[in-house]
Amino acid sequence: MRLIAYILLGLLTLLIQTQLFPFLIHQVWIPNLFLVWIVLIAAMHGRKTGLIMATIAGVIHDTIISNFFGLHIFPYLLVVYVVTVFRIHIYEEQWYISCITVAIATLLDSVIRIAILYAIHADIEIGTYMWHLVFPTIWVNGILAVFIHYLLWRMQEKEKYIW
User: What does pTM read for this prediction?
Assistant: First the structure.
């Protein structure tokens, strides 16, 4: 049952990320809902589930939304690895832990992406990129993490108490 719920949530996330956010937010940045889901699921369910989700979301993000392959899948996988290394220490029932974890993961994801762009000699102004794209995304992803934390926590509680 949980697998079906996650598949449906993934499809809903894809719809929101590709259709709703660009329609509602007319800025350079948009929240990265894929990253929020990946980080919280990795923190709750461990490395294997997180890496599977990161691979699927990274491939979807790179093929449907991004302009070249690898710009999202590689950072997603590294972020999941880092989150799961510190998983025992970071994830508890408190929503603010999830908010802080997602904010730090968003910053790490952005730094990895900047390193990739720098490595391929992309024309990127790091200060402007951080100020206009990364910092607003950190705040919004952190806020989204509160709501997604509540949803995932409720799903996890129901799983524990089902006979």
Answer: 0.85
